[in-house]
C-alpha cells in the first residue's frame, strides 16, 4: 500500500501559534520513504516551521519549484546544499525577470531573490522541466501548462520588465501530481496557468479522469464573477472530492468554494498534515 503524507510548511495562515504564517507556500511531500520539498516560501518561515514540525530539510531528495516568484523561491537559501545536494526541478523561466504593477501604481520586483538566483546559476544539479517530468514512480511535474480556456489568465498584473511594458505569461508555472489508487492528487503553487487548464492538462498527461484531491494556491484573489463561476463548474466537471484552497486563492474565492462544496473543502494552513494512505483518505 502506497504511503503518502503531505505537510504544509509555509502558508499565509498557521494552524498553531507555534508556527509562523507568511505570504507564500511550501509543502513537504513524503512518498514511500522519499521526501520532496515543493516550493520554499519567502524564506522567513521555512526553517522555523520545519523545526517545529520535525521536518529535516537536509533530507530532501529533491526540491521542486512551481514558478519563479519570490514567495515560492526565497526559502531555497535555507535548504542545506551538500555535495550530494538534492536535485532542483524547475522550468527555465524561473530565472526570468518578474515584476508586478497595479494600474497607476509603482512597479515591484517579485522575482526570485538575487541570492537564490545565484544559487540556481551555480548549481550543477538542476533538471529543467520545459515539459512533463517524472520525479519518481507515479510522481510527476507538468512542466509548461497549455493555456486553452478563454476565461483563465495569469491572475494578476505581471510583467517581464521593470517598465511593465511586456506581459509575463508565466510559462514557468507548473504543478505536481501524484498517481494513487484512489485518484490523482494535485499540488498547485499558484496555478497561474488557470486551475481548469491545469486539471485538464494533468488528465491528458496521466490518461486518468479521476481526481482525489486538489490543493494549494489557485490565484483567484482577483478573479471576475465569470471566472469564479466557470472555475466552480470545472471543479464539478472533474468531480474533485477534496479541495484545499490556499495562499493566493483569496479569502472571497476560498469562501465561495467552501460554500459551493460543503464537506469537500478543507484548510491548508502551515502545520496541516494529510495522511493519504493507499486508495482512501
Topology:
Layout: E1 4-10, E2 26-31, E3 34-38, H1 46-52, E4 62-64, H2 70-73, E5 87-90, E6 99-100, E7 108-109, H3 114-122, E8 126-128, E9 133-136, E10 139-141, E11 158-159, E12 176-180, E13 183-188, H4 195-206, E14 211-217, H5 225-238, E15 243-246, H6 251-260, E16 273-275
Parallel strand pairs: 3-4, 4-5, 5-8, 13-14, 14-15
Antiparallel strand pairs: 1-2, 1-16, 2-3, 6-7, 6-11, 9-10, 10-12, 12-13
State the helical fraction.
10-25%
Proportion of strand residues: 15-25%
Shape, please? Answer: globular
Q: Spans of 5+ residues with little confidence (pLDDT < 50)?
A: none
Number of domains: 1
Quaternary state reads single chain
Order of helices and strands: EEEHEHEEEHEEEEEEHEHEHE
Average pLDDT score: 95
Question: What is the fourth-level CATH superfamily?
Answer: Ribonuclease Z/Hydroxyacylglutathione hydrolase-like
Radius of gyration: 17 Å
How many beta-strand runs? 16
Biggest sheet, in brief? 7 strands, mixed
Spatially, the strands of the biggest sheet line up as 8-5-4-3-2-1-16
CATH topology: Metallo-beta-lactamase, Chain A
Distance between the termini: 13 Å
> From the helix content, strand content and strand pairing, which structural class follows?
alpha/beta
CATH architecture: 4-Layer Sandwich
Amino acid at each position: 500500500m502506497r504511503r503518502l503524507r503531505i505537510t504544509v510548511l509555509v502558508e499565509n495562515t498557521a494552524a498553531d501559534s507555534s508556527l509562523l504564517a507568511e505570504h507564500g507556500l511550501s509543502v513537504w511531500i513524503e512518498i514511500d520513504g522519499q521526501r520532496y520539498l515543493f516550493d520554499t516560501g519567502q524564506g522567513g518561515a521555512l526553517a522555523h516551521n520545519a523545526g517545529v514540525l520535525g521536518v529535516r530539510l537536509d533530507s530532501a531528495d529533491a526540491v521542486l519549484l512551481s514558478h519563479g516568484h519570490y514567495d515560492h523561491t526565497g526559502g531555497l537559501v535555507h535548504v542545506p546544499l551538500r555535495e550530494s545536494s538534492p536535485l532542483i526541478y524547475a522550468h527555465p523561466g524561473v530565472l526570468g525577470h518578474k515584476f508586478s504593477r497595479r494600474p497607476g501604481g509603482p512597479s515591484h520586483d517579485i522575482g526570485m531573490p538575487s541570492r537564490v538566483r545565484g544559487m540556481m546559476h551555480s548549481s550543477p544539479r538542476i533538471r529543467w522541466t520545459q515539459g512533463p517530468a517524472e520525479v519518481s514512480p507515479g510522481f510527476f511535474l507538468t512542466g509548461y501548462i497549455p493555456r486553452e480556456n478563454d476565461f483563465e489568465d495569469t491572475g494578476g498584473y505581471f510583467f517581464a520588465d521593470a517598465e511593465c511594458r511586456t506581459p509575463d505569461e508565466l510559462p514557468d508555472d507548473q504543478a505536481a501530481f501524484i498517481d494513487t489508487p484512489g485518484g490523482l492528487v494535485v499540488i498547485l503553487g499558484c496555478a497561474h496557468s488557470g486551475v481548469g487548464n491545469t486539471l485538464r492538462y494533468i488528465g491528458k498527461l496521466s490518461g486518468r479522469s479521476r481526481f482525489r484531491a486538489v490543493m494549494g494556491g489557485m490565484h483567484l484573489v482577483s478573479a471576475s464573477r465569470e471566472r469564479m463561476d466557470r472555475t466552480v463548474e470545472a471543479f464539478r466537471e472533474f468531480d474533485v472530492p477534496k479541495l484545499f484552497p490556499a495562499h493566493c486563492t483569496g479569502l472571497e474565492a476560498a469562501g465561495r468554494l467552501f460554500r459551493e462544496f460543503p464537506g469537500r473543502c478543507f484548510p491548508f494552513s502551515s502545520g496541516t498534515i494529510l495522511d493519504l494512505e493507499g486508495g482512501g483518505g
